[in-house]
């Protein structure tokens, strides 16, 4: 059964074009890149055409099943999320958000045709774009920030093109968005590679084997078609299959040496490995002054003999010819230097956005930058001064045949892009195409790395607080006469669930909870379930945010069959486990959503979460407050609290007026995580935990909610045992 991809897009009046925003363009580009037949595309036509930034030819989608619907005709479960989205009706599962949808497309297409090795686009441990934008600065930049800022920039360019030729020059000088400059700066950073030493040792071994082969025998050199931009009749899928034949799981990747240079101080070798998607470039530098044995090595003679060779002897302008390499390795002393190479001499080149290998992120960013350059009529010279690293990266991406053919398949002017980039890197003094539009950097280009999330796949490092800082923060609250005030659970002491009379599939042990944790997990669930039962009514929609394996959502759905229960979780693996449990229980009042918290936009009456990490608790509370819904929240990971593009701290006016600043609040959060039983700082940690949650409770009260801050029963069920229950007045 095909999955249905819902995108925002409008058909032109002539019917031969589709106008769509950047995320929709990314999805269409990916579907064509993967050549998957497992999806149909449904365009939602109610969007404002003025917010569309690209045009896709209808003829380019001839191999894809395409439909058009108005928003009112869309399935109700899909209306609960932001587009793009994928609906898998057979699983009662909706996936939403650009990165979630793209990762799903890649996984399905990889199963459909494993020979293409599309799964490689997800990178090491399939981690590319896996972390949600709330905690990963890199995902936020690629999925949210650049999409928004490039869209605004494209809109500004479109407006300027309609101005009169006599317009003031100052009005045609646009400011580059800070997000593009962040990406530009990102390319200057050193590559981070997992299992770094192990991989670098493999690179050295591979290079030595290649070079020493030239001392013994010569073999015909295969063509490097994958790297050229020449016309090629093969489709991306066919090319990938050819690559896999040469670089399959049991074969070594093909290695090509791009450049060798020898000076009086060092040897430098740049080589690349051909991969199913792109290449991996490696630089090896041997500093002669650090060589342990060089008594019989005449560096001057080595340099002289190398200088006499024709260094420009390359094949296809991509890599050094066999003849030239044979001459190099035969130079006296060269083999001795190569033998002395170690993994410490290896450096991975930052060829792609996430490091040395192409990933999902590169294809997302390629779409953004292409559409930006297209609106400039590919006059790349007007921005090359400000974005040289991005231009180098674009030049490489445009040289990959699979990328070029995919662009052509969606009707893009890839030859125009190639020519525009060629002008940038031409050695001659070329002028811009007399484009009336120019660009400048913002006045303040300093990135606040301490406060902004780091551009990495992982969550930002927790704030670490010293004892004096904790004391100072507590003193400020004491002087403001702010003290935590804990109440009682809405059900008093009656917080138990009769697990023996429930189906075994409802019990958390069916969700892979370890035996030693099962009892405590049951106690945690009992506290939240009984609290929800006091506020939920028949017909209510209940959302279990950060639902994980669905322990809370499943028991709520079973005990409250007249309520509709939505499980919102970003991790696909967790939701797939829920699917099997729901099937065994024959529960039909549950819909699953794989998406970021803020991508769920549907109406609901009660929001719940059990141990949502750090700022996720506050995002859940914010959604509930905006929806006018009741909430039952058990926070966790106070040390992971961070301000985001959606949240600031402290939350309440009461705490803000107490002179507690953002750093003080992070300090309280750090201390609040020190609540493990029987440790020296447990009492202080509990006080800080209660204060952080008092801020959350005060924030809701200021918005008209009746709020109870209480403890789970028994306290021993978890160190993070606060419960916040809010009911709209």
From TrEMBL:
Domain Methyltransferase: 520-643
Pfam families on file: GST_C, Methyltransf_32
Domain of life: Eukaryota
Occurrences of domain Glutathione S-transferase C-terminal (ranges): 350-399
SUPFAM superfamilies found in the cross-reference section: GST C-terminal domain-like, S-adenosyl-L-methionine-dependent methyltransferases
GO CC annotation: cytoplasm
Family indicated by similarity: Belongs to the GSTCD family.
Protein name as it appears in the record: Uncharacterized protein
Annotated source species: Elysia chlorotica (Eastern emerald elysia)
